[in-house]
UniProtKB/TrEMBL annotation:
Protein name per UniProt: Methionyl/Leucyl tRNA synthetase domain-containing protein
GO biological-process terms attached to the record: methionyl-tRNA aminoacylation
Gene3D superfamilies reported for this sequence: 2.170.220.10, HUPs
Signal peptide, first to last residue: none
Source species of the chain: Opisthorchis viverrini
Family to which the UniProt record says this protein belongs: Belongs to the class-I aminoacyl-tRNA synthetase family.
Length: 212
């Protein structure tokens, strides 16, 4: 999970747009203005310049992190402590003007998430439900059946991250891989918290129709 060219590419694109938008005085890149009574205000770095805010960092959770840490015989936190500085160095190597590099394991991020979660829960925007689907750990995404290809046991396929990996099988049963990436998927079912996005359907349509 070390930095690769794709990470550098997206960072440079974001940096180019942020610099251009700042020159043009684009308001969309201004830092959030929190009410003085909000607990979130104290969680935002006070030294962030008011002109614009380009934020980057490392998202330190998920099955991919867990498996990589196990492979390295480290805890997830220990593993991320080693990997995160590499991503920060990538910004420096490519002169990306990141004004706030944040790790999701930082207290300020955790506290902000907890506060946001409490707000959503209090306003009735969260509910529990069971979800089932085809999940790819490598891609960290769910896929529909029409996005998958059935392969024979132990067939080598081309992947976006590895050269011709061998797809694992159980009892020589055919497995499914993502057609676009070649990465294997597994059928998972879990009970989790869901966000009532449909309740924002009309406001979102109105906002999109207005040009954002």
């Amino acid at each position: 999970m070390e930095p690769h060219l794709g990470h550098a590419y997206t960072l440079c694109l974001a940096d180019a747009w942020a610099r251009y938008a700042e020159i043009r005085g684009h308001p969309a890149l201004s830092p959030f203005s929190y009410p003085s009574t909000s607990r979130l205000k104290s969680l935002v770095k006070s030294n962030v310049p008011p002109q614009s805010l380009l934020s980057a960092g490392t998202d330190e959770h998920g099955m991919k992190v867990k498996l990589a840490a196990q492979k390295a015989s480290l805890s997830p936190k220990e593993y991320c402590d080693q990997i995160s500085p590499l991503f920060q160095s990538l910004c420096e190597v490519f002169s990306v003007n990141v004004k706030d590099f944040i790790r999701t394991t930082e207290d300020r991020h955790r506290h902000a998430v907890e506060e946001f979660w409490r707000h959503l829960d209090k306003s009735g925007q969260l509910y529990q439900a069971t979800y089932a689907g085809w999940y790819s750990t490598s891609d960290e995404a769910f896929y529909t059946e029409r996005e998958l290809t059935q392969t024979k046991p132990s067939v080598s396929v081309q992947s976006s991250t590895k050269s011709s990996p061998t797809i694992p099988t159980v009892d020589n049963e055919p497995v499914y891989v993502v057609t676009e990436t070649g990465n294997p998927v597994e059928r998972v079912e879990e009970t989790n918290f869901m966000f009532r996005l449909t309740s924002f359907k009309d406001p979102l349509h109105k906002w999109l129709d207005s040009g954002g």
